[in-house]
Specification:
single chain; eight-stranded antiparallel β-sheet; five-stranded parallel β-sheet; 15 helices
Length: about 450
Amino acid sequence: MIEHLASPSVCVVDDEPEDYGPILNALNLLYVSAVHIKGDLASLPAKPFTRLRLVFLDLHLVGTVGKDAASHTANAFTKIVSVETAPVVVVIWSKYAGDQVAPDDDETEAQLFRRTLIEAEPGYDDRLIFVEMAKPKPDDRPANWTRKLKSEIAKSLDGQPAVEALWAWDSMVQEGCTKVGTELTSVTKTAVAGTGRSLSDGLKTAMQSLVQAQGKGDITDATAPVHLTSVFSHLLSDRLENPDNGALIAGHGKWLSKPPAAPLGADFSAHMSSFLMASDVGKTKTLYIPGTVYSLTNKNSFKEALGVEFSSLVNICCNHESPKQKWVNWVAAVKPVGVEISPACDVAQGKRISALLVAGLIVPMSVAKDRKKADFITATSPFKVHWSADGWVPQDAILLLCHSYKFTIPRKSRRLWLKPWFRLRELPVTASRNANAAHAARVGYVSVE
């Protein structure tokens, strides 16, 4: 149970008590909890921390100096900070950070460490924000050094408004989770009032009641946690949209309201759209999760499912008025997919009999101008499809859904020719459901003027 609390956001890496003692005390005065690691082999965690936001790092651990120090500290860093987390602010806190590595070398100790770290693990590149904070040598430290460190910490982190906004958001999420827990506890009091049962028993009963209400007839050992998570997600979402501590983000309005500095990188828009619209498929074992985009790998199975040739989907989405060579390029470039669009509530409550999929195409931007525009075809904005698939090279693309091509599959029947590729987030899936419903509900009447 206690391991669920093992999620440090601040870490101090230093091996000298006269150094790490004052900074831990300074953080304590700021009411910031931090994990301390000496940096030797025995002190390193079993696996890197994935939720770190801030690291105070001494460059010279376990008595090493020069290139040995850079190598040892870089190795320790990779064992402490997960390469999958970002952004992480790394405060280089060393008495010798600005010293030259050698008399005839312009590279400083701090620069040597950074170069050594990125060479050892390129994944850190563009994921770490390095700043420096002065660490005076023992004879130069003031008597009230711990209290002075409080202001030095704030000063070293100044000028990072985007990081501060992320940390404010993180704080809002944590407080939202706390509020959900507090409100659930208040409701629980009514469940155990006058029964002699404990609060712990009441919380258990409350969560079981939530699962029963959310899951309806589809409650198993595997689905129950999903139902509880779904309820908590809705409650948390409401808390985040109506926060008690919204001033944390509101204070950033002055710089957020300004247009971004130009120029932006050529790939920025597609990558941002990918972040907003799509995600990887995750590790769930449940078949046919709404929003999942499947690569269609078997032409014969496609015909069995829809009753038409595989090529007809490719052809109907192309503007045949284009020159023949463009049509040839289209056929060679596009990739067929299926997207699961079942209503999320039906899935959550186990009411879905069959998975509902709409067939479509992933269309590279190089041929996207040749797509057909019609009311039975829904097109997304361009986004970076950077998940690999059979024959697919990560690139900017649009997703076309052809609402004339829909099919169902029993929800517990796996189809090997449907290979999970990536997942659309809930809002793009909802937009696709709406478009599909509108296409299915069209009247098609004739009027004469």
